Structures are given as structure tokens and as C-alpha cells.
Amino acid sequence: MINIHRALNNDRLMRSLTGLNRKAFEALLPAFIAAWQADRLAQVRKRAPGAGQAQKAKLSNPQQKLFYILFYFKCYPTFDLAGLIFDFDRSQAHRWMHRLQPILEAALGQKMALPERKLESIEQFLKRYPEVKEVMVDGTERPIARPKDPERQTKYYSGKKRRHTSKHLAAVDEHKRVLVLSQAREGKVHDKRLLDEERMADGIPDAICIAVDLGFLGLQKEYDNIEMPHKKPRGGALSEVQKQENREKSSRRVRCENAFAGVKRYGIVSDVYRNRVSEFDDRSMLTATGLWNFYLMAA
Question: Is the pLDDT of residue 3 over 60?
Fold first, then answer.
């Protein structure tokens, strides 16, 4: 089995294998233990005591469990490889991953690291994020395997990425923290259409500037707090002042891309998605986003 203690004593190894350094790992562990204990109490026993063949647990303590699920998210190994590294069967590797992912998500929720899924009102935003001064909104896509169904192929094909993808829309603050994350959608859906359907801008106060790119053209006519780059006129050119303003806007808006890059340090949301459990692609993106937010908080 992998030498976890060696990794725990080396920050470089910890970041490579789990995405967190030792300090962040130790800060997350108590919440993970609490979430694990709460989940065990809530479970209903499906088999009588003693039923089935006794099997020794390979992940014998909470530290190993947390390390395993973080390792899976960061490195995204196949279950055959995960089983080889942690010395158990591929089916057990699969069971442990799906058993521990909700525990990790719950722990991140306790730490207030998970983003909101939908803004119901301005009051909700102000209660959760009273310190936020600026918001950047953009979409991000993750590659998926080419669907076999022709209709799904069309829905998930992204002309922008020239491959099949799923898409999320996110709102990011000035500190690169992801505040809001939409549900996973087909790669074909345009960013502006997704924003309109999610009504994300409705829940952001007018006093807070919302920076977007030209992919959201037309949004400035619907809201007063939209900051958008100058669009080059057809057959014309931008003035030097407009070019300078675009550079300044871009330098602030790039923090959204920095946040996406931080989230996609986790291989499960940057590599071609291959899991088959329903809606797990959305849950994995939420968990990876929570891990990035927690890293900003704890590192």
C-alpha cells in the first residue's frame, strides 16, 4: 500500500497526490471525521449482523480514507490502478470512492467551502458573501467521452472546444473563490443562454460589479452593474483609450480563469470524464470546486 506517512511529511508530495498541503489536510480532517461518523449513524443496516463474508478494511482509519478520496480526485486513476496502489480489488476501489465522495462533500460543506448552486435572492447573497466587492462570471467546460447516441452527440458537442463536453457557469470573487456553480449542462449550451436560465445575475446586488466577456453580449442591456469589454465596431477599430480599458478589464476578469485553473488541478474535472454513475459528473465538479475554495481558506 502507498506510504501515506511519507506523503504527509512532504508538502510537495501532498500537493501532487491530493491537491492540498499538510496544513490544509489536517484542517479538513476533523470535519471529515465528523461527517463520516454522522453518515454511519444515519445508515440503515441492510443485512443482519454477521451476514456475508468477513473482509478486512484496507482503509482502516479516517486519515487513510481522506487521503484516498483526495488522491482519487487529484490523480483520477482507473479503479484497477487505484486498487493496485492501495492494495485492494478494483471493485473495492469503486465502492470506497462512491462511499467517501459524499463524506468529503459534507465535510467541505461544514467548512463553508462549497459554492452555492443557485442564488434565490439578493438577501441570500449578502448573507453568505457580505465581504464580496466584485464578481466575475464565465463558463467552463470539461471533456467527456463521445456519446454513442446521435442525439446526445449533438447536444454535448461544443463548437468552441471542438469536442464533446459538459459545461458549468460560475461566479468568482476578487480573491478567486468560486461563489456560485451552476448545474452541469450540455456543452452546446451558450454561456449567455445558461446565465439567463440560471438567473444568476438576479441574485447579485446592483452595488457589486459583474465582469463578463463578450460572450455575454446583450447582458449590459438587462442589468446596470455589468462590466464588459468594448467590442470592435464592424469595419472600424478601437481607440487607444478603449484598448487600454479592455486591458484593465481583462486583468481583473482573468481571476475567473485563475479560479478555473485551480479547480482543474483535480484530474477528475480536467481529464476526459469516464465515470458512469448518474449525475456524478456534477457532484465531482462541486466537490473539486469546494476543495479549491478550501485550499484558498486553509493553505
Answer: yes
C-alpha cell at 29: 480532517
Q: Are 191 and 216 in contact (CB under 8 A)?
A: yes
Determine how β-strand 134-143 pairs with β-strand 209-211: parallel
CA 135/CA 144 separation, integer angstroms: 28
pLDDT value of position 291:
97
Interatomic CA distance for residues 174 and 172, integer angstroms: 7
Amino acid found at 142? R
Task: Report yes or no: 36 and 62 within 8 Å, Cβ to Cβ.
Answer: yes
Confidence bin at 53 (pLDDT 50/70/90): very low
pLDDT(50) > 90:
no
- Cβ within 8 Å of residue 201, ≥6 positions away: 137, 195, 210, 219, 222, 223, 226
- State the cell numbers at 18: 491530493
CA distance 19 to 190: 31
- Beta strand 163-173 with 178-181 is antiparallel
Cα–Cα distance for residue pair 181/152, rounded to 1 Å: 23
Arithmetic mean of pLDDT, 247-263 = 94
Residue whose cell numbers read 465502492? 95
CB 223 within 8 A of CB 210: yes
Cell numbers at 127, concatenated: 448573507
User: What is the model's pLDDT at position 49?
Assistant: 54
Q: Residue 51: is its pLDDT beyond 80? A: no
What is the chain's mean pLDDT, rounded?
91
- Of the candidates 89, 65, 85, the residue with the CA atom closest to the CA atom of residue 75: 85
Residue 229 is predicted with a pLDDT of 94
CB atoms within 10 A of CB 284: 23
Distance CA(39)–CA(33), nearest Å, equals 10
Where do runs of H (alpha helix) occur along 2-89?
A: 4-8, 11-18, 22-42, 62-75, 79-86
